[in-house]
Design goal:
Blueprint: H1 6-11, H2 18-35, H3 51-54, E1 58-63, H4 79-93, E2 97-100, H5 109-118, H6 122-139, H7 155-169, E3 171-174, E4 179-182, H8 183-192, H9 208-216, E5 221-231, E6 236-238, E7 257-266, H10 272-277, H11 286-296, E8 298-308, E9 311-317, E10 328-331, H12 337-341, H13 352-355, H14 361-373, H15 377-381, E11 389-397, E12 404-410, E13 421-424, H16 430-438, H17 486-500, E14 503-509, E15 514-515, E16 528-530, E17 536-538, H18 576-579, E18 580-584, E19 589-594, H19 608-613, H20 624-631, E20 644-647, H21 654-668, E21 681-683, E22 687-693, E23 699-700, E24 706-708, E25 711-714, E26 717-724, H22 736-743, H23 745-754, E27 762-763, H24 770-783, H25 801-819, H26 823-840, H27 846-856, H28 861-870, H29 887-890, E28 895-901, E29 904-911, H30 917-926, H31 928-934, E30 939-945, E31 949-954
Parallel strand pairs: 1-2, 1-20, 10-12, 20-21, 22-27, 28-31
Antiparallel strand pairs: 3-4, 5-6, 5-7, 7-15, 8-9, 8-14, 10-13, 11-12, 16-17, 16-19, 18-19, 22-23, 22-26, 24-25, 25-26, 28-29, 30-31
Length: 955
């Protein structure tokens, strides 16, 4: 605890205490705000500033958007904010124009849930939470440019979120040009006949509805009947991440069903290749890149058409070489062809196990579809679960051998992946093998096993999977693959499929189009209206922002949790005066109906880095010159982007992938110069805390637990302790306010940075905070007389060499550590220097004291400002030059050289770091200990590694 001893306080009234820290910190925070110390000038516009500062190299440093929670911050939340602040301060001191600010990602479910429970408008609670968080963050001394801050719920902000949506809606992806283009250019191609209209008609012959439907197949934002996770008990569609593995909602534990609903989608799949390829140029952790690559899931293979009743079922396979082993097909239960090809009665000879015990194929399919709809995608794909499915009653034809193969539906095939249909090769796919065994389907070996099991699948326990083996049993009337290896067989069968019109070589992606609709209130309204024919129209920019209307009830309508056939009713749909409007969109007043879904909470965080650049621009998304200055491509950053983006690894895919997609669309359309939003990504670790649980497994207040007798006790009951997350629900949260009150913000900053490497999780220990508080007390005492408050520094050039070496080694080390974001080791070096100066005794020379304060300034800015002012300076320490080490004092005067004979150490020599190999060899051979150890023996070889090693090999 900080010292509160009355006698000590009387003896040292100017000692650095928690009370003094609080006074210093509040005063300097007020000063920074009043002076605009952290204002980063733009090259033009309302935030333009000192041209000399603009001319410096720039650094744009960002934290991931915080959500303003009603619970406020605990000490785990500011870890990344403090780190970026230290880094930003260092960059300012090394001559950079630094943009560092923080806004709030304020739309989302928590505020809406609170509104449902209390009737409080989400804006009211959210803005209160933002104010509370701003107070907490200010207390930490974070150097944010507050002129640039905003919240995603500000209409001036989400006007541009809506505007970007319209840019995406009014765009299509030109595969030939590999970029997005305005939809008007596609319309011009249809009008001129340059691009034929499917079906052979001309553009002028199409109705408005037909034109809209055709363009919807190209638009980058489009509405479609999409399979979604529908939760009647909550009255809303859920993202996959909001559904548990057993197919229930995380919130409320209601059953979740697969349903087709009209939803907005983003055609992110058009950018799959670019999203993959451009990862290579980004300075991101390899683990994050790998997650994105796996999520996008690029795979090369072939599309194969299986004829059926005059039409075809198309599958994508990465193993076309195994086509002769395809003995059945499986469609996703939701596949649109299921009903079309399901006959009225079972074909003669249908195995009973294929029917699921149903009298007709229609009954079997309907029952199985209902069963599958109650499962989540995760549950359906679980490898350990039993494979189930039913025969549709239909047969397709395998194109390579003409054999009729039965068509099943099974829940392990998902409509959202590939084509929603697979050719099943049970001999060489574990899933297919398990299903074939379960429903007694034939299994054929077409890839010769190399493990000695033989080629009779009846004797196998599982499929044989190999990408490097010989093809067998794959010869037909038109083509033979026998004897080829897998690679050769793939090439031959793909060429044959294309030549015969049965398929083509292609690339497939695991990535699906982004479902962009939510049946909720607290989100951005879509700037879309529908005419009487149901055609979607974009609102003109002059009608933006389209603000959220007032509603009487914020909750979606809930239904019977088990009734999968219900339809959602959104809160916005209840405000009929807002929904049904008369607008003039350029062709006279007409009646329209507004879109009543809202955008997902991801929308606002897809582009917020751009708003930081030009936050008050009401005419443009961002001024092009300003965007180029802060984010444009440059050497080492071919796609541009933010210089440093810090946040948790939990956003590895969704947020980062979505933001990259929006950036690429805006770049293609010429609105920005940067094709990537974040050039360098750093994932900070997590501050963990001990969770204490009683015999019921319920968390108890960590602050009230006693440690005694080798265990942990709460109110007389022994409790268990495990390291876990920190949070209010776990009753182990420590607020930064508590630590600031006890020790001051600078101590909290130092402790969080000193706990370990920034990218590693670490346990919180309040008792250990005092160590950094004592460092600051010693620092203060080295410069300020605790009795008088006067500075003890002396103006002299007479500094002993040991101190100069300690100082310049610290400068060199701290500079490198701060540049490399190794803040824990930087603090260790400052501590080492400060301890040296304490032991040295006597007043510090100014030439030592001032660099010491500057070293500390990025880490503990309040005490540094105070000491800088006490040292007689009138300008802020924030913009001082960071010290530069004198190389003469960084290199040790001597280093220890080890001399070995036959691998054993015989002498240690103190030599100059710059000694040459020849000189070192002569010195070693002349040393009396080496001469004695050789005892007259000849020398066969001398290996010298100056300045630290000489290895002598006797003859």
């Amino acid at each position: 605890m900080s010292e509160t001893n009355p006698a000590a306080a009387e003896a040292a009234p100017h000692r650095y205490t928690a009370a003094l820290a609080a006074e210093i910190e509040a005063r300097w925070q007020d000063f920074w705000d009043a002076e605009g110390t952290y204002a980063a000038p733009n090259p033009k516009g309302d935030l333009a500033g000192d041209p000399e500062v603009v001319a410096r190299p720039k650094k744009f440093i960002m934290d991931m958007f915080p959500y303003p929670s009603g619970a406020g911050l605990h000490v785990g939340h500011p870890l990344g904010y403090i780190a970026t602040d230290v880094y930003a301060r260092f960059q300012r001191m090394t001559g950079h124009n630094v943009l560092h600010t923080l806004g709030f990602d304020a739309f989302g479910l928590p505020a809406e849930q609170y509104a449902v429970q209390t009737g409080t408008h989400p804006r009211v609670s959210t803005e209160a939470n933002i104010k509370n968080m701003q107070v907490q963050l200010r207390r930490l001394g974070l150097g944010h440019d507050k002129r640039r801050s905003f919240a995603t719920i500000d209409p001036d902000y989400y006007k541009w979120t809506q505007w970007i949506f319209l840019q995406i809606f009014n765009s299509w992806y030109d595969q030939d040009a590999q970029k997005a283009r305005p939809i008007s250019e596609l319309v011009a191609q249809f009008e001129s006949g340059e691009r034929p209209v499917p079906g052979g008609r001309s553009w002028s012959e199409l109705s408005s509805v037909e034109r809209a439907d055709l363009l919807s197949e190209y638009r980058l934002a489009y509405a479609s009947d999409a399979p979604v996770n529908w939760c009647p008990g909550l009255g809303t569609v859920l993202a996959n991440e909001e559904v548990t593995a057993d197919g229930r909602s995380e919130r409320g534990n209601f059953p979740v069903f697969k349903a087709k609903l009209r939803q907005w989608n983003m055609r992110i799949t058009a950018y799959a290749d670019r999203l993959l390829d451009d990862l290579d140029a980004l300075d991101w952790p390899e683990a994050i890149k790998l997650q994105q690559r796996n999520w996008i899931g690029r795979s090369e293979g072939a599309r194969v058409d299986f004829p059926i009743d005059g039409e075809k079922i198309t599958v994508f396979t990465t193993r076309p070489d195994t086509l002769f082993g395809a003995t059945y097909m499986v469609l996703a239960p939701e596949h649109p062809l299921v009903e079309k090809f399901t006959p009225d009665a079972w074909p003669e000879g249908t195995h009973e196990v294929w029917t699921g015990g149903h009298a007709t194929p229609a009954e079997a399919v309907a029952a199985y579809r209902a069963q599958a709809a109650s499962k989540s995608d995760v549950e359906r794909q679980a490898e350990a679960k039993d494979k189930t499915g039913v025969f549709t009653g239909a047969y397709a034809t395998n194109p390579v051998n003409g054999q009729k193969v039965p068509v099943f539906i099974a829940d392990y095939v998902l409509m959202g992946y590939g084509t929603g249909a697979i050719m099943a090769v049970p001999g060489h796919d574990t899933r297919d093998f398990a299903f074939a065994r379960a429903v007694e389907l034939p299994i054929v070996c077409v890839v010769e096993p190399t493990d000695g099991r033989g080629t009779d699948p009846a004797t196998w326990d599982d499929a044989f999977v190999s990408h490097d083996a010989k093809i067998v049993n794959s010869s037909g009337e038109h083509i033979s693959l026998d004897g080829l290896n897998v690679t050769e067989a793939k090439a031959r069968i793909t060429e044959w499929l294309e030549r015969e019109g049965h398929g083509e070589g292609t690339v497939n992606f695991r990535l699906r189009d982004w479902l962009f609709s939510r049946q909720r209130y607290w989100g951005e309204p879509f700037p879309i209206v529908y005419d009487e024919d149901g055609v979607a129209h974009a609102l003109p920019e002059s009608m933006l922002p389209l603000e959220l209307p007032e509603v009487d009830d914020y909750s979606p309508r809930t239904f019977d949790p088990d009734d999968a056939d219900t339809q959602p009713e959104t809160p916005l749909s209840r405000n009929e005066d807002w929904v049904n409007v008369t607008l003039d969109l350029g062709d006279g007043p007409k009646k329209y109906r507004r879109e009543t879904n809202t955008m997902p909470n991801w929308a606002g965080s897809c582009w917020y880095e751009l708003r930081y650049l030009d936050p008050h621009n009401s005419e443009k998304l961002v001024d092009p010159e300003i965007e180029r200055y802060w984010m444009g491509p440059r050497e080492g950053m071919p796609h541009g982007g933010v210089d440093l983006y810090v946040g948790g690894a939990e956003h590895a895919v969704l947020h980062l992938l979505y933001a990259r997609f929006w950036s690429k669309v805006l770049h293609d359309l010429g609105h920005i110069s940067s094709a990537e939003p974040f050039h360098k990504l750093f994932n900070q670790g997590m501050i963990q805390a001990y969770v204490y649980r009683d015999s019921r497994g319920i968390a108890v207040p960590a602050a009230e637990v006693e440690e005694r007798d080798g265990g942990y006790w709460y109110q007389g009951e022994r409790v268990t302790r495990l390291l876990g997350k920190m949070g209010k629900s776990l009753k182990n949260a420590v607020t930064p306010d508590e630590i600031c009150a006890e020790y001051g913000a600078d101590t909290l900053r130092l402790y969080e940075m000193a706990m370990g490497p920034l990218d590693v999780s670490r346990p919180w220990d309040t008792r250990a905070v005092v160590g950094q508080f004592r460092l600051l007390q010693r620092l203060w005492r080295n410069i300020v007389d605790e009795a008088t408050g006067e500075v003890t520094v002396v103006d002299t050039d007479d500094v002993d060499e040991d101190t100069l070496r300690a100082l310049h080694k610290a400068i060199d080390g701290v500079r490198g550590d701060l540049e490399g974001m190794r803040f824990n080791t930087a603090i260790a070096k400052v501590t080492e220097l400060n301890n040296h100066l304490t032991k040295r005794g006597g007043p510090l020379p100014r030439s030592v004291a001032e660099p010491l304060v500057l070293l500390v300034a990025p880490l503990a800015p309040h005490i540094a400002e105070e000491l800088w002012r006490k040292l007689g300076h009138t300008d802020s320490v924030v913009h001082q030059d960071f010290p530069v080490a004198d190389p003469a004092y960084v290199v040790d005067e001597t280093v220890t050289c080890v001399v070995q004979i036959k691998g054993k150490v015989k002498a240690r020599l103190e030599v100059s770091p710059g000694i040459s190999e020849d000189e070192l060899e002569k010195t070693a051979l002349a040393d009396e200990r080496v001469v004695a150890a050789l005892d007259g023996a000849g020398i066969r070889k001398v290996i010298v590694r100056a300045p630290k090693l000489v290895n002598i090999v006797p003859a």
